[in-house]
Design a protein that fits this description.
Length: about 350
């Protein structure tokens, strides 16, 4: 029994039925998947490197897998179980399985990662990392009228992908104006260059140090996406985000970039009671207020998405419907917005979906 790679479920044919395999001879793909599923081994190699003893054990177990593959291919010849093309990580894993050694297995993990990181480009983190099998394929072309903001965002992220210094980014503006679309479009545009999008949900803020340690040794570049931020003054999430942005005991990995969206410029839900009396001579009271309001200043790049006007709304509707608007459609779109929804990218999307 292998001590490094997961066992092939029994009976073997059931393992084929339960797996999502690419097109082609199925046994090779299924056993190659075991290499990508060996998460403990992959993490050890990525964080500690390849020792001589571990190399010997890996090569012994690769040989055993090759022998098992030969038996399955000769005793149970089957046509393709899959219809999709293989992922680059699957092709590389099959090459290691068929003729690679311990060094080539290490190279596999350094190029493609392991587990869900080798197969997916979007994730949710709410304390546990979960892959998103069907991420939103939205593109930057949907952001009509925000060319300047999109250009600045893309320039910053391209620097990040190239290993140059990049700035934590805050996208600020009214509801429905395209901030979230801009962040999700990063994955669409740059997944092929190794960008991965991790949406951090509120429950996950307290587990950020653990998440960063998982991401640190991986070969990909991760955008940590925090959507619709707004903290109360005493919210523990405020302190978690502040530590992530300005530094804590843990070091933020070089392959992680923070991008957040918010309807509030300073990210804090304020009330008048939070403000010191204008005549107060207590320095601590004013220092506390400034500390709360300075969270947004920790973002090196702040991009403002102003509200839509009528013309911007109609241009977006035209783009989404993929045609020029006739007078009837223009009037229907304006009525749709003026019935309480307002002029926004979200309203334009809702109208286009309804009008098709």
């Amino acid at each position: 029994m292998s001590t490094l790679f997961p066992p092939l479920p029994e009976p073997p044919r059931r393992a084929l039925l339960e797996a999502d395999l690419p097109e082609g001879e199925p046994w090779g793909w299924r056993l190659a998947a075991l290499l990508l599923e060996a998460e403990d081994l992959a993490r050890k190699l990525l964080t500690q490197g390849l020792s001589p003893g571990l190399a010997q054990v890996i090569e012994d177990e690769l040989l055993a897998l090759r022998q098992r593959l030969h038996v399955l291919r000769t005793s149970d010849r089957l046509a393709s179980f899959g219809l999709r093309p293989p992922l680059p990580a699957e092709v590389a894993a099959l090459e290691v399985l068929e003729e690679g050694d311990a060094q080539s297995l290490l190279h596999l993990y350094r190029q493609h990662g392991y587990g869900a990181f080798a197969r997916h480009s979007a994730y949710l983190f709410g304390g546990r990392l979960e892959a998103v099998p069907n991420p939103d394929p939205v593109s930057f072309a949907a952001l009509v009228g925000f060319e300047r903001q999109v250009a600045a965002l893309r320039t910053n992220v391209e620097r990040f992908l190239e290993g140059q210094p990049a700035l934590s980014t805050l996208l600020y503006g009214a509801r429905g104006c395209g901030k979230s679309t801009a962040v999700k479009a990063l994955r669409t545009a740059y997944a092929a260059r190794g960008l991965r999008l991790v949406e951090v949900l509120y429950p996950g803020l307290g587990q950020l140090p653990a998440l960063l340690e998982v991401l640190r040794p991986l070969p990909h570049k991760f955008v940590l996406y925090l959507d619709d931020l707004a903290f109360s003054a005493e919210d523990p999430g405020f302190h978690q985000l502040k530590a992530l942005l300005e530094g804590a005991v843990y070091q933020r990995p070089a392959n992680v970039l923070v991008v957040a969206t918010s309807n509030r410029r300073n990210l804090i839900n304020e009330s008048w009671a939070d403000r010191p009396d204008p005549g107060s001579t207590d320095p601590a009271a004013w220092d506390t207020l400034q500390n709360k309001l300075a969270l947004a200043d920790r973002f090196g790049l702040v991009l403002t998405f102003p509200p839509f006007d009528q013309q911007g709304f109609l241009r977006t509707v035209s783009y989404l419907l993929e045609r020029d608007l006739d007078d009837a459609t223009r009037q229907a779109a304006l009525r749709f917005a003026q019935e309480g929804r307002g002029f926004s990218g979200r309203t334009a999307r809702q109208f286009a979906d309804w009008h098709r």
